[in-house]
Amino acid sequence: MKLRASMIAIVFAAGLSACGGGEEPAAPEASAPPVETGADAVETSEETVAEEAETASGPAEEGVQFAGFPEPYASADYATGKRLFMQCSSCHSLTEGGPTLLGPNLYGMFDRKVGEHEGFDYSQALQEADFEWTPGQLDQWLASPRNFLPGNRMSFAGVPREDQRAAIIAYVMSETGYTPQ
User: Where is the composition biased (Acidic residues) (predicted)?
Assistant: First the structure.
């Protein structure tokens, strides 16, 4: 257990250092066992860290958050969606009345016509598009914004994994006032 905690602390500190945040990592405790250095040890520690990060919110929170959503969103992982949305949060807010950032606020986006959120200057491609946002439309958009609607200004390459897109969309649905129909 101490080895697992030490590995998590090292990975967390390395992550903070990589993005320029946080303080200098603390030296490992003298009583901590030495860290193994084989390929198997690295693989096991990365798997362990990933497993713990995925289950940080607990299974009860998932069921409550996505209850009543259509599949695949009802069975999506809340913690994964929340974690992956962090990439989006530098450009989009989710709260009602929240700010417009580099991208529009996403609160109430579902069943809203594309390109019509007040206070945001949409590209010509989005202004001319003729559809309403649905979870399915957002899924296609997130797979590859450039391919889904050529000419839009979103500089995001997309999310290739279907399960990750479902988790992001379910998280956005749960945070933006989506009501299942």
Answer: 43-54
